[in-house]
RNA sequence: GGGCCGGUAGCUCAGUUGGUUAGAGCAACGGACUUUUAAUCCGUAGGUCGAGCGUUCGAAUCGCUCCCGGCUCACCA
């Protein structure tokens, strides 16, 4: 053979033995077709969820025919311990005849374990609601026995059979008819340890959902939390809307936007960084209680608490103020806790009562969400955790210097706030509503009537994380315009004119009702309510570098 | 961007001071088994040790560069 040809042959062979595992699975796929089954399945009506099937365990009986031609129906004893199972097997043997009788059931799921014991296979299938054992016996399934030989871990199958218990008490479907739904050509991860590499877990989230314990329930909890918040808001007559995500001017927060371009209009656009300005326009339009829960995009760093796209809830309530938003925040969070606990049996969390447990695990500790949450002023917390009188500018500046915060030529309140972020926020285990912020660091907030130094604002801190932020909103268009200009004063005229949202100011000039406004970071709230330390574990597909 | 740690079979991981042909479990393949529980038992096959360059008689192991990831600090909110 010429050298070149040999080189080509070896170059090509890697693709072929790239995976003998895959080749084996493809061979079985072909065999399934030969046996007259569609290896990619089809509609499968009237199946029950595994959770529903498990709930029917009590219907299983043991029928013993008697001499008169009738039969005696025996209820099954508890079969939880080895002794109980052994005793039941002995009892069955003593009866001489009789059989387990259970309801006919139909299930579908993914094969996650496979124990092949000669002419009887034990197959564990998994669906959204849990796992269930299927017993496939050569005698019981007849022609489908050959199909069962083509099953691999990861395949999706359907089963018709009788719900029974095995000799060891395990609830099982004794299969009578098998159906093939889809072949897993790619081999699944280790059946026991699953995926460990955090990158693979995020990149191939589908595998993580199937194989990593706790992942699917956590994301289902996320969905329940979101649904519950919508419920709470609906009950209080808030109207959900959908604002634009493409903004000419990305306003409503101080963050770097992602930039994009519209071809037909030939204009530059930004992905939104906040929901605020359009929701306020809608309040002008008469939607007095309005909210949006949606994705915002910030072109900034990634950390355990930051993903470039995240879900934000913003709520505005006409004729309310920041204090109305405190009650609403509490209602949303406690409602969400009740919603996720309603689906987890109380015992599963080691809690014998059926009452809602507001103490949720977090790292090695717990967070007590029992309402009402603590409410403390900014200055109180400052004195408590920074150990310095917040009114004493000299002492605050001295403390700032000592922890490396620059003070030269900066506003005392700005220095104070740097110290607050450094010394106080991390110490706030919470939940605690921090109120009465210095007005100078909250330019877009209404001030207290009796004390213009204090802004009507709160932030909710839990475990050092800022979870919610609320204001009594500014509705004076002239003042708003003024503050926009001040905010942009560092930029060139060209830039500042470009960034001034004139339409928003124009809207305010038609009169926006006085209102309370609230923002909640949904991802962070989900982290706290599910005991998850990383934001990437509550986002199904966090941003990753492209695969190389 | 800085510091620390890591990348070995499809998956989970060992691999000594640089020393023979790189190992195990699971998964796969062949065989036994109709009540198993990560089934078990016997046998077989499976590797560009992240990539490249270098040091050396000899490199998974040492050095340099790069790629990828994790943790952490910084940045950002």
UniProtKB/TrEMBL annotation:
EC top class named in words: ligase
GO biological process: lysyl-tRNA aminoacylation
Pfam annotation, one family: tRNA_anti-codon
Amino-acid positions noted as binding Mg(2+) 2 in the UniProt annotation, renumbered to this chain: 466
GO molecular function: ATP binding; lysine-tRNA ligase activity; magnesium ion binding; tRNA binding
Domain of life of the native organism: Bacteria
Compartment(s) of residence: Cytoplasm
Essential cofactor(s): Mg(2+)
Chain ranges of the Aminoacyl-transfer RNA synthetases class-II family profile domain: 222-546
The UniProt record lists the keyword rRNA processing: no
Gene name of the encoded protein: lysS
Family statement drawn from the similarity comment of this UniProt entry: Belongs to the class-II aminoacyl-tRNA synthetase family.
Protein name: Lysine--tRNA ligase
Complexes and interactors: Homodimer.
GO CC, alphabetical: cytosol
EC code: 6.1.1.6
The keyword ATP-binding belongs to this UniProt entry's keyword annotation: yes
Predominant location: cytoplasm
Catalysis performed (reactions): tRNA(Lys) + L-lysine + ATP = L-lysyl-tRNA(Lys) + AMP + diphosphate
Keywords: Aminoacyl-tRNA synthetase, ATP-binding, Cytoplasm, Ligase, Magnesium, Metal-binding, Nucleotide-binding, Protein biosynthesis
Manner of cofactor binding, per the entry note: Binds 3 Mg(2+) ions per subunit.
Species name: Adhaeretor mobilis
Positions that bind Mg(2+) 1: 459, 466
């Amino acid at each position: 053979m010429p050298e070149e040809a040999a080189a080509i042959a070896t170059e090509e062979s890697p693709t072929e033995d790239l995976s003998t595992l895959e080749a084996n699975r493809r061979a079985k796929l072909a065999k399934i077709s030969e046996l007259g089954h569609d290896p990619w399945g089809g509609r499968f009506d009237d199946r029950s969820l595994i959770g529903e099937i498990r709930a029917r365990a009590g219907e299983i009986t043991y029928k013993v025919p008697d001499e008169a031609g009738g039969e005696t129906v025996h209820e099954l004893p508890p079969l939880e311990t080895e002794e109980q199972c052994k005793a039941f097997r002995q009892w069955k043997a003593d009866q001489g005849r009789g059989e387990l009788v259970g309801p006919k059931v139909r299930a579908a799921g993914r094969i996650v374990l496979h124990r092949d014991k000669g002419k009887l296979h034990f197959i564990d299938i998994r669906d959204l609601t849990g796992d269930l054992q299927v017993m496939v016996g050569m005698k019981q399934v007849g022609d489908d026995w050959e199909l069962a030989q083509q099953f691999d871990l990861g395949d999706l199958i359907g089963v018709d059979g009788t719900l029974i218990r095995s000799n060891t008490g395990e609830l099982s479907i004794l299969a009578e008819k098998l159906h093939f739904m889809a072949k897993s050509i790619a081999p699944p991860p280790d059946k026991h340890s699953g995926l460990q590499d955090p990158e693979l877990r995020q990149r191939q989230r589908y595998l993580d959902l199937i194989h990593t314990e706790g992942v699917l329930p956590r994301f289902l909890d996320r969905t329940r939390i979101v649904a519950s918040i919508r419920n709470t808001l609906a009950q209080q007559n808030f109207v959900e809307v959908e604002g634009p995500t493409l903004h000419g001017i990305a306003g409503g927060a101080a963050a770097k936007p992602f930039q994009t371009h519209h071809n037909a209009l030939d204009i530059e656009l930004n992905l939104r960084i906040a929901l605020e300005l359009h929701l306020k326009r809608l309040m002008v339009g008469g939607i007095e209680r309005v909210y949006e829960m949606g994705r915002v995009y910030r072109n900034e760093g990634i950390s355990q608490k930051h993903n470039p796209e995240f879900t934000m809830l913003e709520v505005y309530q006409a004729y309310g103020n920041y204090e109305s938003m405190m009650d609403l925040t509490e209602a949303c969070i406690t409602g969400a806790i009740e919603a996720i606990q309603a689906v987890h049996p109380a015992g599963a969390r080691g809690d014998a009562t059926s009452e809602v447990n507001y103490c949720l695990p977090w790292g090695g500790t717990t967070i007590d969400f029992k309402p009402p949450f603590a409410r403390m002023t900014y200055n109180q917390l400052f004195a408590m955790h920074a150990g310095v009188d917040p009114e004493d500018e000299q002492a605050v500046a001295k403390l700032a210097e000592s922890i490396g915060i620059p003070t030269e030529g900066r506003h005392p309140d700005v220095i104070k706030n740097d110290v607050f972020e450094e010394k106080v926020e991390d110490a706030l285990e919470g939940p605690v509503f921090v109120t009465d912020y210095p007005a100078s660091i909250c330019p877009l907030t209404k001030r207290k009537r009796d004390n213009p130094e204090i802004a009507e604002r709160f932030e909710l801190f839990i475990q050092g994380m800022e979870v919610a932020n609320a204001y009594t909103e500014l509705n004076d268009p002239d003042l708003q315009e003024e503050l926009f200009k001040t905010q942009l004063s560092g930029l060139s005229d060209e830039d500042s004119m470009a960034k001034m949202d004139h339409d928003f100011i124009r809207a305010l000039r038609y009169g926006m009702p006085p209102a309370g406004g609230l923002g909640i970071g949904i991802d962070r709230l989900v982290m706290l309510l599910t005991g998850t330390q990383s934001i990437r574990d509550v986002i199904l597909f966090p941003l990753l570098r492209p695969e190389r």
